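User: My advisor asked me to double-check a structure prediction for Mediator of RNA polymerase II transcription subunit 14 before group meeting. I don't want to rely on an old file, so could you generate it fresh from this sequence?
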Amino acid sequence: MDQHRVTASQDLKKDRSQPKEGQLPQKRDFAQMQTSQPNGTHAQNGPHPNGVPVQAPPATNGQISNANTTANLPTPPPLDGSWRDEPVNKSLGTLIERLAQQCFGDLNDTLTKMAETSTASGAQTNGVLPHTTDTNEASLSKKRLLMDFASNQRDRFIKTLILSDWARDAEEIARLIDIQLWAARQADAQRFAINFFYSTKQDMRVAKMPNPNIEAALELLSTGKTSRFPDLGYLPPKRLSAKQLLKTLKGMNVALIERLNLHEDLPPYFNDFSVANGRATFRVPDEFEVDVSVADEDPSTPFYFIDIRFLFAPTPSLSDDGLRMHLEERVNAALASSGLQGCYDFLHRYVLAHKINALRAQASKLLRDKWFDCLQPEMHRQVFTLQYWRGQRAAKSWIELGISSGKQKGAKSRRPPTPRNSFRWFRQGQEVKDHNIDIDWQNLDLASTLASVTAKHTQWLLHSIKERFDILAGQNSQVDAQLKTSDTDPDDCQLAFSLAGLPKPIVTRFEPITGRISVSPPNRNAQQAEKFINGTANADAGRALAEVLARSVQDRLIPMADAAGWTSVDQSRIVVPPATKAMLGADAIRRSLYKCSQGWGDAWALYVHFGLEGEKWFVVRIQESIEQGRPVRFMSTARRLNLPSTLANLTQASLRHIQEVAEAEVSFAVLIQELNDSRLEYRIESTSSLTKRGADSEPGLAIYFSMNTPTKPSGSKASLLPFKLASWIRLIPSTLTNVEDGVAEVRHDVRFTVDPSKFQHLSEHLTNSTRKSDIAMNDSGALGLKVNVPFGKPYFAMIQRRLTHCDRLNYYLELLKQFGYRCTDVGLDVLSFVYSDVHDLAAQITFDKNAAQSAKLKLSPINSNPHQRIRVALEKSYNRAKNRGLTQLAWDLRVTLPLLRLFDKLESAESSGESASVYTRDVHRYTLTYKAPLPACSFAISVQRGQSQIPGPTGVQFRCKPEAALGDDALSHALREFSKGDGHEWFGDHVGGFGAGLAGLDEAFTKLDQAIRKCEGAVVKKQGTPAEHVTPAPNSTMQRTQSQQRPSAQPRKQSRNSHKQEVIELD
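Assistant: Sure, here is a fresh prediction for Mediator of RNA polymerase II transcription subunit 14 from the sequence you gave:
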């Protein structure tokens, strides 16, 4: 069949080489020619040879030529065609395409190699060679390359052509492959069945037992003889006596000693021997003792084996007679062939191999016990490999126990090397040369060996973690790393990390059996670290443990911060610029951001940095900017707090202290920025807390700055203050106060020294009074202030203003002293004084912190103070006067007090209290009105200041005149008569009015009131204006104080016909 296919393929090649298929006559098959022309004759009489038709051959080998009988044949078994759908099958087109690509690539390589071959020596013009034999090696090499390429490619394309021919009958070829696979599987099944039956038969030999000879056994046991065994007639040897036996043994001893000392070349390891009881005993330490003897005195006769004892544990058992006989045969054969040297070599190798096997058996037992699924034992020839910590993600680690040749590198010796047991340790794929692990080959204990190996491995891992940890921590590390190691017990190997703020150290160990890391004390952070290190190949264990330390410290702070009222700030939406990152440090592992109080607002936060250098505390400023149309929050400033490690003894008191220091640092940051902008000198120094005394006082920080220096290096040297300071200003921030609308105020203690003569009045008052206000001073000129400023806001201008207020306060005290007023409360915000001790009248001025000249006036007592009538006018007058406000206020209180008391007296003269009323236009102008039942009239009253501002009787004048012109009525005649008179410190103006000083004011108003009341019931006529509708000028500022501000001293009865008066206040 194969021959026919080859022939057919050759014909197909020839047919394809023709222009058209079928134009040439088909070539006849040589086999057909042989069949049609037997014996070399030509065909005659038609297609049949010799003209006789050839009959069908008979059936052979069971084949039936009749086609009708095929229907009775059994159905062939189904064929497995699953190979057709396998992915390894490639299409013919892909094969041809790759073949073409490979041909093109080989052609390029061939041309490149030919071009690299130099043929300059034999080159001719235009590449034409003469008609001679080519002997140039380069040219022959090129031709050889080209011919090799052509030959190889021709073979490949011929194979491809054959495949293409088969592809024309792809279904038939596939069916042929199916049949071939089926036949191969059947043959494999037959071979397997034969081998199975053979092996089963071989195994059954052991199970076979010969039939016991019961009869012979009974006869032998009962009589001691048996008739079934023939008697060979052997004579039993004579039993030796004790003397003969002793003599024989001595002779054997002599023969052994003589032979060993004179005739034998003993191996080096057999030098330790002894002769006794007719045998020579050779001892090899840690291996065996062997007894040999001789049967003849002839030195050429070999020794023979007597007994062997092993000198290591566990020893092999030789109780099996078969094993002992086999060992005895092998030893005697070695003694016969190689003498004592052969005996040593055989027994030595036997012992070495047995030790390896004993350790292998121990490994199997350990694998079944506590090392389950953690060991991988393998045996390669005479080397036993044991992989430990099988479940680790790192590279494999194993030990090798085998037999080495005993050769030592670089050592030269005449003695041939002796094999010995060897031990090698591979740690994570790398052999450890200097492991210093001693294997006890006398007492074989694989568990102890594994303990030493795992202890060394654990020690190496912990040391690597510590080195990585030291690199991460740097030189300023606050972590106390304690490494405890052991060479034999891995449980004693541990690495403990202690950091301030942790109640217990973080202890790291490796489990001896599994090799997995364990971190204690167990918690969520330790569990995450264990999962990461054990589940990640080449995990950075040092970084993970540093994360555990930082997280543990952070977790300890979180509940305490929540209890202290600190609010955590989301850090994910806050951008940290590179400059701020440099301020915060690159050693941060964990970070926390807190807002310690609602008064902090959103601009400042407390930043806690947890790292291996300990925790670091910062205050950061958070600002907002617009980027790409969206608001972005970022950290613009970071200032570190000067705090020791506070997490070691974390309490609520320590958190409050941290908050106070942070608030002080915020104040420092704001002030320093302003001082830098103003180019003023400053320094920061450590000081003791001003609010604590004794041993429990904690050090704080104070900032010292000068305000005598000009704001610019060049230009005018105008001072920032109206007075010169004798020292730098010391500022110490204190706690938050007055939290309102999310913004709090910080109280600052300001200390500085001035010339006592500059603030003489202030010093006299503060040194003689109790310290209850926000300002204090001593005799030496040291002055202290308490200044409240908004948290995190610029406040340098406020401090400057408060210092200026000190000078103003000293001036106010001097002025009040000149007026004779007694100060009761002196402060930067409040000034209280008594301006009338007789009537117990006092005033309190509350200064505005922000406005330069703005104050609120409060008078006491509230119900009986006459100045309540003009309190608002006095307050406005004070604020309008600016720097001279207190001078104006003090003078107004002095000069208006008699007038206002007279007004109260006039209004309360009658029970109804509605006939006379006083309206206030301002502090120095008033309107006095009378109405029914009295004649309706009004008077303009003014207070005029004299030339001197010093209080006295001549410093003020009061003027009173009617607002309407006098007529011919009774009231006008009465007023004319009154104005013609005069008295002590008063005089009339002849037109119904008068002028008076302080002393004559009471008399003048009394006579005026009497004159008007005498005209009760008279009708006042005024041109164009009814008498009952006389009112003050509409453009004047009036206040009705009788009915609204100051209640009357006596109860008044409301008239039924009277109407309610309205209070009008116009600005």
